[in-house]
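Recall that a protein's primary structure is simply its ordered list of amino acids. Everything else, from secondary elements to tertiary packing, is in principle encoded there. The following example makes that idea concrete.
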Amino acid sequence: MAAAATAAVGISGCAPTSPTEAKDDALASTVGGGASKTIELNGQTLPASMAKPDPVPEDEIASTIDCDVLVIGAGISGCPAAAIAADKGAKVICVEKGSAPCATRPTGMSWFGTKKLKELGVLCTEEEKAVIVKDIFGGANATSKQDIVRLWLDESGEAGDYLTDIIEASGIPVRVGGYYGYYKHFDTVAESAEDMKKTGGIYSDSYWNMYALQHQVGENEAPGVCLWGRPDLSDADWLTPVYQHAVDAGAEFLFNTTAEQLEREEGWEDDPAKRVTGCIAKGPDGYVRINAAKGVVLATGGFDWDDEMVGYYYPIGLRTCRTWQKWMTGDGHKMGVWVGAKMEDPGQYVSHMMGTVAPAAVMRSDERMMQTESQAFITPWVEWALPSNALAPVLYVNQKGERFMNEEIGYFMSGPTIDKQPEGLFWAFWDGDSETKVKPHKFDRLVDGIDTDKHSEMMVEAGLLIKADTIDELVEKMNAPEWDNGKFDGEKFKETLARYNELCAVGSDDDFYKPAEWMTTIDTPPFYAAEMGSSWMTTVGGLEIDTALHVLDVNRQAIPGLYAGGNPAGCFYGNIYAPQVPMSLSGHSTTLSYVAARNCVDGI
């Protein structure tokens, strides 16, 4: 019988059934105040929150369940893993600490070489694959693992087709040409797809090449993210059909069940051939041992709300705003290292950074938590919960009253630059002629530059935007206690504004080289100012893996019986979230977890 080698506090890495439930105390993280302490464990230095706890006592384990494949986490990685394993005939158990499959629903996945892309004749050849691999690997300063990037491209066609068939069988369409608002901008998905035929789906006239791999979920005809057609947003919920498919194929899901330790055969510290054999989990009826004859797949999400892990591996994350996914506390990462797995080194961790989308009020709050996704990311296309003109390439200045960047570089690239400004904040400015002057980014755009006068008034009333008839009045309001409290240098700003308007008049940004198209004067009352900072969606990076999705030990040898997919699995991104492929996080998470479970069943 396997020894109770390790224990964890909380796992299964996904969410309750709704964003509201995500706030429940039962799933709220217990986090520290940053990575002030470290520990040594199994030959590596780790933040103190990853310390190995005592094992669960044998006399407290009330029951035992046997299975072939154990999946920990029922989110966008765990549900596909459970589905394919069950379809291949394995007896599958999936444990999830929430009450239902994870509440997070990305509305697109980037897959290469799917049937839908082959129908268009784009992004499906070996030559195109080679271009993307080299671009992502080089763009990450060679800090990712090239073979893992290649694996995603090799396997995502099969995984994407598998999931597309399940999703579309439920009545939810999946289409290419969605673009996530990044590339050229069309009125319909069909127009976008036609353009892909002409361009090959590769767009090169930005700061990087962009590859239109996104498969958009939902009925809305407009390309983009979160543009769903059904009033109840049910066409966005692609994960429930995948979960139901897994159940229909025989997978058993144990909700409200927290995996508290992986089990590995005794003597693994000296013998790397010893296997991971299952886990100890705690459910409504107490502790249960789950034996997994073929192996365990970790699909537990990031470590967004473990402050010590964030402070150690991704320190910018403590200075910027996080999303509402409080159940992501690095549980799978911790469970892995307690049985000998190797974490990627500090400096290898990134997130989906959103450089310009955090209001100053959130930046200055105690938690620095963005609104729930239903309030801040799902509905913005209907009623954006931020002053969207502040996301557009208007005039940006810091508290010193100085410009500091080419505002057109986009929200992917702007986050680290904004973080280096006083308090990690900046002010965005535009004037009363915004419908003519404020233009969205050409590339790398979210929902920028779509404010109407009515929406701006709502933002003023909500305390997210300042409006004034003169620049002097605007500066006075900016220095109010609820804003910069006297720290904003209004005199320097007036000099900066005068210089900016001069450059706009001649159509040449000689200071930061913003293209002339976005150089529009700020001289027509009323004047607007919004103070903003940066936010991020989730951490990506974690346990080192090989191309079979085995988790590696500190000697970079595969740990038998332990696999990882999604955010617990490292090695894909290196030190930058790949801006060349929007929705690559959901694309590689669904793909790698699919491959991990498939390999687990096949004994690879």
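The mean pLDDT is 87. The longest helix spans residues 146-169.
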